[in-house]
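Reopening: structure tokens for the N-[2-(1H-imidazol-4-yl)ethyl]acetamide complex, inputs below.
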Amino acid sequence: MKTYTLLALSLVAACFIACGSNSSKAVSENMNFLAESESVAPPDVMESSPLGDFDADSAYYYVEKQVEFGPRVPNTEAHRLTALWLAEQLKRHGAKVTVQNARLEAFDGTILNAKNIFGQINPDAKERILLLAHWDSRPWADKDPDPEKRILPVDGANDGASGVGVILEIARQLKLNPVSKGIDILFVDAEDWGTDGDDESWALGTKYFVENPPLKNYSPQVAILLDMVGGENATFCREYFSERSAPRVAESVWQTAGKLGYGKYFLNRLGTAVMDDHVQLIKAGIPAIDIIEYHPDDDLGFNSRWHTTADNMEGISTETLNAVGSTLLTYLRSL
Ligand code: AHN
Ligand code: ZN
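Re-run output (same inputs, fresh job):
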């Protein structure tokens, strides 16, 4: 991983860390997803969860389901089918769904047929919180230790699917046991078709979203981004831009985690600055925090699987998904 150290206080002088992932799977096995989509979590998972509690097995299942489509690389069939499945899942959880279609030009000139999937829970509530995660996966495992694998797409089990899986499970729980606040969910596309050294090449989907808001005067009170929230032994620090943008929200989230006994995951200390989707929101005036794996005391940075072919289901930990999902759901219920 690579960390670009922040030298200036402005967002323009950004810095960050890097990414990892894995193998491809046949898309054809996934053609029956529409029929399956009515069943969400397997029955034993549903029964094991008390009403209103985050169920990490269910979140894991959502992560696995995404990975089974194959790498969700823009302009592929796996990507197209995953978008349909995600919109379907949000609808099933009672959200009012809008899909934004955008043609976005990547740094290498490729035109990406991108889709931002936006769902609103309690669409008439005035006070709103936005939860987001990117759902695309990186086209190249450029950090893979094996040079021959660096042209392969990544599974993005952690980098992409984990955040989406946690948010889908939160949506499911909010349907079982609703809150009165407005909760918006945004699965953004085209985050990960970027290149090192070009900050503007990342987070294209979120940039499009803020430039083309799906609603007039859309201004959630705060946005919470989940990125790489499923890695085994992950730690989460208070990311630099988040801390400048919404310190009180970060404080509450980290405090909530501590009270729930997840202090070994949520380290209450300042992390590095990461160029991620939340930066586009902050630039557009939406306060935002990023919950992203970061290891402050070693060279690992994000996670050794990041942007390698090893970012697959083997790196996903139910315990980590539980720490993040339980913390976030408890935080949302406390508002
Ligand atoms: C960069 O590496 C530029 N940003 C980290 C954001 C990221 C990439 N999250 C997942 N993949
Ligand atoms: Zn990535």
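Residues 1-48 have pLDDT under 50 and may be disordered. The first helix runs from residue 33 to 36. Marking as resolved unless the reporter disagrees.
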